[in-house]
Structures are given as C-alpha cells and as structure tokens.
Amino acid sequence: xxxxxxxxxxxxxxxxxxxxxxxxxxxxxxxxxxxxxxxxxxxxxxxxxxxxxxxxxxxxxxxxxxxxxxxxxxxxxxxxxxxxxxxxxxxxxxxxxxxxxxxxxxxxxxxxxxxxxxxxxxxxxxxxxxxxxxxxxxxxxxxxxxxxxxxxxxxxxxxxxxxxxxxxxxxxxxxxxxxxxxxxxxxxxxxxxxxxxxxxxxxxxxxxxxxxxxxxxxxxxxxxxxxxxxxxxxxxxxxxxxxxxxxxxxxxxxxxxxxxxxxxxxxxxxxxxxxxxxxxxxxxxxxxxxxxxxxxxxxxxxxxxxxxx
Length: 309
What we know:
The chain is of the alpha/beta class.
C-alpha cells in the first residue's frame, strides 16, 4: 500500500524542483527525503524522478502517480475537514499567508478578533508576496490573503476556493502642505500625473503593471524617477516632496504625518483583496473562522473610509 507521506513528498519535490528545496520546506534533511522517495520508488517498481540540470523532474510514471496522489491527498484532507465540520469546533492551529500591505489594516485586526473569539487557536502568519497560492496548494499554508488587479485576467487555480474581501483603490500620495496628515477632497485625474516624477513598483510586479496600464489608458507613459516595491520607501519619498506615489489605501496608515492622499478620478486603479483556501478545506471550522475574521476586518476598513453622506 502506498504511503501518504511519501506521496506528499513526491508532490513537494515536483513543485520545489529539487530534493534540497523540498526538504527545507518540509523541515527534514535531504537525506531523509531521498530515503523516503527511494522507498516509494521501490513500492511502485519504476523510477519517478530524473535529473534535469541542477534540478529534478518527474518521469512519465512520476507524472501519472502525481495525478493520482493529488486526488488521494485531497480526499484525505476532505475527509478530515468533514469530520471536523461535524464536530463543529475550531482547531488549535492555522497558518495564514498575507501580503505586507494588508497587515496593519486587515490582518492585525482579524488576528486580534480571532484571539478574543477563539483563544485556543494559534495562527501562524507568514508575511510574504511570493508564490502564495502555490504554498496553499502544497498545504504549507491554510489561508491566503492575496490580491488581483482588476485590469488583469482572472486566473483559475485548481483546487482553490476564493472569497472576495475588498476592492482596494490606489490613492495618489503627495507631500502635505500642512504639518499633519490629510485627505484631499478633490479627486485627481490620472493625466495630471503626466508631468510629475513618480515612485512606482517595478514593472514586473502586478501593481507596477496596473499603474503602467492605467497611465497608458490616460494617454501618457509615466516618468518613473524612483522604482521600489517597498511601500514605506514610496511614502517617504512622497513625504519629502521628491515624488508622487500611487499606493493601495489599506497600505496607508491614516495617521502618517506629512502626506496627503487623493482618489484617482478618471482611471481608477483597483486591486481585489481575497481570501483563498483549498477547496477541501472549505468546510473546516478553523479555516472558516480565519476567513470570517478577515472578512469582518475588511468590511470595517471599508466602512471606516466611506465618503461622508
């Protein structure tokens, strides 16, 4: 009979590209992973991996086995979640991967609320903007707080269930004319930024692509004097009057001194914040509790920033 743990190791090696990288993610030694994969090869009687330069790749038999392993592992997780749903109790641990720009305004309030409502639940939070959904499909994390910019086509991920949380607009950030923070009542037409020096994320990032796309729609190519994905650096350059920034609203602390924010009037740039989990985890009370807390925090953040009636 095939060993579930060995199938999971095969899946991890295939995703990571090497036994060493897979071992690091599994918190095991490379030797231990190699030994278990050798045992799996013995179980099936055929090679499952082959060298591919500095990495390894699946053989044809490995690809066939991995297809079945995906279904087997998903069925195991679904069975565990179904039993947990019958019990109806929130578990003891969960892992959340979140974007750095969402921590202050959504993640922190959500985790605070979870701690009050479910004190037995310990949530590990990985703050990263790299390959979040891949980690979800590998089972490294249970919930992902991710983003998708509206100008980009929606990409379906096999076995992933997505719950929209919040439409988060990018705001124009400039140096404040007064000593404190402020919000300009007058929306800014994006074309007004054509003559300004901008600080933007790299064009290889989703946000950088979204800004470039919107500026071109407005009829100009932006003058990018500064390029950085670090939002703190973007705000610092705007505060100093060296550049104009375009920053997601939830990434800006309303109490930040020395800056002024304004909405984009003609070509708004929006990112959709979403919570994602594996389809098999959708019925888990623990996962549901984490997503509900994120949804509540996002709703409260949106309500806080509604325009006055």
